[in-house]
Every structure is written in structure tokens, then in C-alpha cells.
Amino acid sequence: MFRYQRTLHNAIEFDGIGLHTGYPVHLQLTPAPENTGIVFRRTDLKNFEIEATRAHVARVSYATTLMKKGVMISTVEHLLSTLYGFGIDNLFLDINSMEVPIMDGSGKGFMDGIENCGIRKQNALREYLLIQEPIEVRHGDKVAGVYPASLPTATYIIDFEHGAIGRQQIDMELTPECYRNEIGTARTFGFVSDVEYLKKCGLIRGGSLENAIVLDDSGIVNRELRFPDEFVRHKLLDLLGDISLIGHPIIGHLYAEKAGHAIHAALADRIARGIRKQRVCTLPEFESALAVPKAG
User: Fold this and answer.
1) Residues ≥6 apart with Cβ < 8 Å to 278
2) Residue 246 has what DSSP assignment?
3) The CATH fold of domain 4-291
4) CA triplet 182, 188, 189: central angle to 5 degrees?
5) Exposed, middle or buried, 218 (CB in 10 Å: 0-12/13-18/19+)?
6) Going along 96-141, which residue ranges are E strands?
7) Where are the domains of the chain?
8) Which residue in 138, 148, 84 sits closest to 278, CA to CA?
9) Are 73 and 100 in contact (CB under 8 A)?
10) Distance of CA 98 to CAs 70, 158, 169, Å?
């Protein structure tokens, strides 16, 4: 965990296409002052700002979309996940279209750019959200929750009928090193059987075998997996992107089973509203509380 807030050393640029719109898009990550947070700026709309917070979550069907005063930014989860995983607090995300570029379907391109640029420590103390009591959301057999823990950790479980996926589970401590090596390169995935429906809905116009794992009835259509359990690793990547919209990194244990963007968003909303079950603190305050001997 980091004591101080962080941003980038310099601006970095990315070019790509939107997964759902298929539009070409230019994205620049620009260092921002302390206490700015993560802020999108639509450069095609006079730098209109959309703060990456749960208050601006508009849609969570197949991707997470933010909207403010009718202006949208779609498919934000992979980029926000990378920033959360790397512990970056303050950044302007300058973008000239309505959808973040899909890159290779994971956070790898963003991670490579950030590592080449470097991260700069700032002077202000970083604030964390300390979970003090369990917070859960349940929709049928879908569960998402966060529980008290002394370190940021996570568990994700998926269970698909498809033979190439099945039941997968991942448990890990959330550090930038673990994110880089274990989560950030896991790609999004989809099924051939869903393609026609999604296209009729105006989605995945930019989708291809180069930016997603595609499955049909016989197995995986395109490339080999980066991990045997790449599917559950990508779901954890999505969860971290969605939970980042709370606005503070979490000290607690995140848990999700058979979940998705909708239940991730519902959990983020419940965490933010659970005033008596969490509190904001700096790392020195957290360390001081741990050092106090318990009575008796």
C-alpha cells in the first residue's frame, strides 16, 4: 500500500478502436495535481469533463459506461482497472471519442505505456476506504461483497457450462506486482453464439480475434490462453475497474461469484452508501489504529 498519492511522470498516448462502436480513438493520459482523482476529458467536446465516479455510471450492460449531462464515455473498465491496480490516484484521461480503445482486450497496452513512462509520487497523503463490517450484494446465485481485512485482497469465482471454462477461482493479494503479473494481461472473452445478437444491438462493431478470446461449441477459436484460468482473471480485472469508481482504494477483501458489471456496480454503490461499515483513512491513521493494543 502507498502512503502518498501518485500520478504519471509524463503524458502518454494510445491509439486504437472502440470495441462496441468500432470508432478510431486517440487517448492521452496526462498527469494531474494532487486530489484531482481520475477525470475523463472529451477533447472532441471542448474538454468536457466526466469524473470517474459511481455517480456517473449510466449503463453496465456488456461494458461500463459513464455519462454526465448527456456526454458519454464507454467501456472504461479496463483502463480504470489498470490505474487502480497500479495505484494511480490523479490523472486526466484525454479522449477524442465516446469509447476507450479496447487495445488487445486486456490492460497490457496501458500497463506497458505506464511502465515506460513511470509513476511519480506526490506530496498529499493517499486516502483509503477501510472496510469495518461486511457489505454484500446478492442477485440469485450471483454474489459480490467486501469484508474486513488488514490488506487489500480479492477472490473471484466463475462457473460456465462451456467446457473450455468451467469453474475457476482466483485468490490473491492486490499489489501492483500481482496486478501486472497475474491480472492485467488477461483478455476479455465472448461466445460466437452471442455475436449476431450483440451486432443487432449495435455492439462489438470493433470486436475481432485480435482483441478478445472467442469461443464456439468446440472450444477456443483463436489464440492460446495466456493463463489456464485467463477467464476468471479477466473477471477480476473487470471488478477492479468497476470498484475503482468508489473513488478510494479499498483495504478489505473483495469477493465475487458468478458476477458481472451490474452486480459490481451495485456493490460499489452499496459500499459508498455504507457509512457505518467503512471509513476513509490515510495509511498512517490505519497503521496507528493497528498498533493500538486491544483492551483486555
Assistant:
1) 129, 130, 131, 132, 133, 135, 252, 271
2) G
3) lpxc deacetylase, domain 1 (3.30.1700)
4) 120
5) exposed
6) 119-125, 127-131, 135-139
7) 4-291
8) 148
9) yes
10) 11, 30, 33
pLDDT tens for each residue of the chain, 296 residues long: 999 999 999 999 999 999 888 899 999 999 999 999 999 999 999 999 999 999 999 988 778 999 999 999 999 999 999 999 999 999 999 999 999 999 999 999 999 999 999 999 999 999 999 999 999 999 999 999 999 999 999 999 999 999 999 999 999 999 999 999 999 999 999 888 777 667 777 767 777 888 889 999 889 998 689 999 999 999 999 999 999 999 999 999 999 999 999 999 999 999 998 888 999 999 999 998 887 555 44
- Catalytic positions, please? 261
Cell 469461443 belongs to residue: 215
Q: What residues does 13 pair with on adjacent strands?
A: 28
